Amino acid sequence: MAEKHFKYVILGGGVAAGYAAREFEKQGVNPGELAIISKEAVAPYERPALSKGYLFPESPARLPGFHVCVGSGGERLLPEWYKERGIELFLSTEIVKVDLASKSLTSKSGSTFIYGTLIIATGSTVIRLTDFGVQGADAKNIFYLRDVDDADKLYEAIKAKENGKVVIVGGGYIGLELGAVTKLNNLDVAMVYPEPWCMPRLFTAGIAEFYEGYYANKGIQIIKGTVAIGFDSNANGEVTAVKLRGGGVLDADIVVVGVGGRPLTTLFKGQVEEEKGGIKTDAFFKTSVPDVYAVGDVATFPLKLYGEQRRVEHVDHARKSAEQAVKAIKASEEGKTVEEYDYLPYFYSRAFDLSWQFYGDNVGDTVLFGDNNPESPKAKFGTYWIKEGKLVGAFLEGGTPEENSAIAKVARAQPSVQNVDELAKDGLAFISKF
Ligand code: FAD
């Protein structure tokens, strides 16, 4: 098969790829110079929609409605957008071999792509219970959620099992969002996770208490401190029950597993420097290999604000890292440089009529403020993280856009905190003082 040559290749067609393409267009790219190669059958889209609007019982979100860059309020890049600019989209094309030394990529069907500059944007894949040999985990109607195909399968099952029982395995944000959306679909929902409270990597006990109470009020059963150790299925191979460590059994027509992800770096093993499970980059997302950049979920980059290398699996970073890499590539071609990436971690989630945002670092002591009573008609509360006398992180449920940007500002500025009791009393008012 003939080789295809491109000045720039983006490997992966997710969030980062879409935002990188837009930045290439802004900076100037000639027709035929840029290609995006993606395993998925569709042009880049805003992945977070899959666990939210995509599964709504009424008027669910569907492509082309949420192609990038609508998530950040930008223009929607439809497949025609790429075509009109001579940006080649190779869809349903999985790269199975990468040779960074000869700058070549080989697809499953045997096509070879030669690049001048490569941007690795392969994102993450889900961790599967079958990876650990959990008994019965290959039964039908046990779902994971990473791409549109997964979401379509789950949506079909939700429609087929009307008023049925769903068990969500995992208490992270995917589990919480899926718990909410399956409940909105009138399913009988139970959630199971091993930790003492949900979202333990970010939430404090005080934050989690609100969400767990809220979910319980919606009729969602929460079972903590245990894990799924096996699954029963019927003669058709469809899951019927989840067996829990400790002996409990939950009936299930559908199981959705959200137990975390893993960055897709296997193709590059031994060819590029890695750190903390990702591909190590500098502040311009350049890897240890010349002309090779890595962005989004796979990049372990210098988080300047905290003086350490980190990997961040959030959509905001996927967008911004992609833009930074393209700016750096274009600048270096002209012998110029751009400013170092200076990222403020930002994460959000939405479920039912709840919406929270978090900025900064969740380390140190915490101060809970506001009304976190799940019975309140309009609960609004937050938490500050204080490390070495400075406010370093801020979380807010139910904030207005102005309040959310104010907590972002405060997390970036890291003001000194003299009196923690006063901060708790001031709560959100602290940001206006500041
Ligand atoms: P992805 O968007 O995952 O894109 C990677 C692309 O590479 C995919 O198209 C994949 O098919 C392709 N690919 C991988 N390997 C190959 C190969 N060998 N050959 C060809 N193509 C390949 N973050 C938030 O901050 N807030 C949220 O509310 C939120 N919700 C989410 C909900 C869901 C259901 C999921 C799955 C993620 C969510 N995230 C959220 C995380 C966020 O979507 C990711 O951090 C973001 O998509 C990362 O962008 P990326 O471009 O690095 O990877």
From TrEMBL:
Keywords (A to Z) from UniProt: FAD, Flavoprotein, NAD, NADP, Oxidoreductase, Redox-active center
Cellular component GO terms, alphabetical: cytoplasm
Pfam families reported in the protein's UniProt record: MDHAR3-like_C (PF21791), Pyr_redox_2 (PF07992)
Residue intervals of the Monodehydroascorbate reductase 3-like C-terminal domain: 344-430
SUPFAM superfamilies linked: FAD/NAD(P)-binding domain, FAD/NAD-linked reductases, dimerisation (C-terminal) domain
Top EC class of this enzyme: oxidoreductase
Reaction equation(s) it catalyzes: 2 monodehydro-L-ascorbate radical + NADH + H(+) = 2 L-ascorbate + NAD(+)
UniProt name for this protein: monodehydroascorbate reductase (NADH)
Domain named FAD/NAD(P)-binding: residues: 6-322
Origin superkingdom: Eukaryota
Organism: Stephania yunnanensis
EC number: 1.6.5.4
InterPro entries hit by this protein: FAD-oxidoreductase/Apoptosis, FAD/NAD-bd_sf, FAD/NAD-binding_dom, FAD/NAD-linked_Rdtase_dimer_sf, MDHAR3-like_C
Family designation: Belongs to the FAD-dependent oxidoreductase family.
GO molecular function: monodehydroascorbate reductase (NADH) activity
Cofactor: FAD
